[in-house]
Write a structure and sequence with these properties.
The protein is an alpha+beta fold and about 525 residues long. It has two domains: about 5-280, 2-Layer Sandwich (Nucleotidyltransferase, domain 5); about 340-420 and about 505-530, ATPase, nucleotide binding domain (Nucleotidyltransferase, domain 5). Helices cover about 40% and strands about 20% of the residues. The chain has 21 helices and 27 strands. A hairpin with a 3-residue loop joins strand 1 (about 5-15) and strand 2 (about 15-25). The longest helix is centred in the C-terminal third of the chain and has 23 residues, at about 510-530. The chain is globular. The N and C termini lie far apart (about 60 Å). The model has no long low-confidence stretch (mean pLDDT about 95). The structure holds D-xylulose. D-xylulose binds near residues 95, 278 and 319.
Amino acid sequence: MSPSGPLFLGIDSSTQSLSAVAIDDSLNIVAVESINFDTELPSFQTEGGVHRGDDGLTVTSPTTMWVAALDLLLSRLHESGFPFDRVCAISGSGQQHGSVYLRAGARGVLGKLNSDKPLRVQLAGLFAVEDSPVWMDSSTSAQCAAREAALGGAQATAELTGSRAYERFTGNQIAKIYQSNPDGYHATERIQLVSSFVGSLLAGDPIPIDAADGSGMNMMSIREKTWSPAAVECTAPGLRDKLGPIVASHTVVGAIHPYYTTRYGLNPACKIVAFSGDNPCSLAALRLQAAGDIAISLGTSDTIFASLAEPAPSASEGNIFANPVDPDGYMALICWKNGSLTREEIRDSAAGGSWDEFSAALDATPAGNSGQIGFYFKDPEITPPILQTGTFRFDANGNAVAEFAPQTDVRAIVEGQFLSMRLHCGNIGIRPLSILATGGASANAAIIRTMSNVFGAPVYSAEVTDTASLGAAYRARHGWICKQQGRFIPFAETMAAAPPFEQIATPDADAHAVYSAILPRYAELEKRVIEA
Ligand code: XUL
């Protein structure tokens, strides 16, 4: 680490841990630290950072655990000699959708933190609801149905808020708290997201929710980036006053509270930049800054993150959020449950359990698989939503067939997965111009070539770790630079010093044309599979 110069800190409050990444002004990572909730704060008795209810649906985390973790994280960094006095700005990331219920009077308590005592001791009693519902909770189906009924259906809800009503989305969680614990609800002065809550601890004042994480609540107008009166009013009475304002994600929302300057040596000039959700922060870490920049993560589930300019929210696929680095832009998140495990199943059944044989089969078969198309749902799929598991194979004439030759199966699963991605991306307005491949399968050259050809876009490789906290650190620096200059500076300009990602595939125009011709047939067959 150089002995001087500004530093920027990103703090990620995830489901299982609280982590920090510090960068210098040249974007180098200079420190990382992490606190695991289960093992380092065992008194909260969490498993994977959460408590699961007896109903199998309710999932919460003890809010005070996050408070205790913050002191532990900062003291760990302090003890390691981390130069907190050089930190110019802090931003953060939080698991999306989770909510925190601050009791009346919380603002006064937060403002008067005393650096002699740990946060946990001073903030006991701060919460009107002690256990925060988190994104893994799926106990609010009734509230989702009520929301969609009030807002004119699932598609209307998606058009208004960016997503249809999802159980984990915060508005539905708040509605459940109001109905099941009205005393707790009425005792609440301010409701925060996990992200804005951790930022509020640092600022010593409740900071606003940012537009990107606010998009995960089913209550924000995705186009206006303000609370939708209809979507707030159908949630719970008197809610608008408890939510505070929404700000653009690069906004400086406060300064560090003296608690931290005295206790850990932070610089009193250190700014707090709005905290955001972990997925928006990951978008920033992957530098998906221009509309059409997408990342495809090939993991247990396959996920696409994308920057887009003209979203077309849909009730059947994906979530649209405000973009965390471009106040006029949007981002999308789409998840496919059948990812690596499903590819591995075909590797085992059709390629002798060997990735080399799997790649050889891909190389030996033509783009478009001579018109043969397969759907492989080892698990119920999210995109498109289909509960029925199984494999559905069709010949070039659209007739269902029981089997493919092994090599055909290999090509069919890979092409099918990427055609599904292209189809469903297109349905919500994503027009991929460049692809960043991450996750395990991104190391397979034959799979990546197929990805490039299906989308007709160059593919780059990125192995970025700690994306949520790193993205938060990049955003801290972005917000700080905007504040210094007194105007919005495009995120890309602030990231010019970052080393370029390595290009690993160039699309073949002929192969791409084959896939463009197949796509309508693929869509047609997918409809048949869903309807069957
Ligand atoms: C996104 C979601 C999860 C959490 C994980 O909608 O629910 O990705 O953000 O922390």
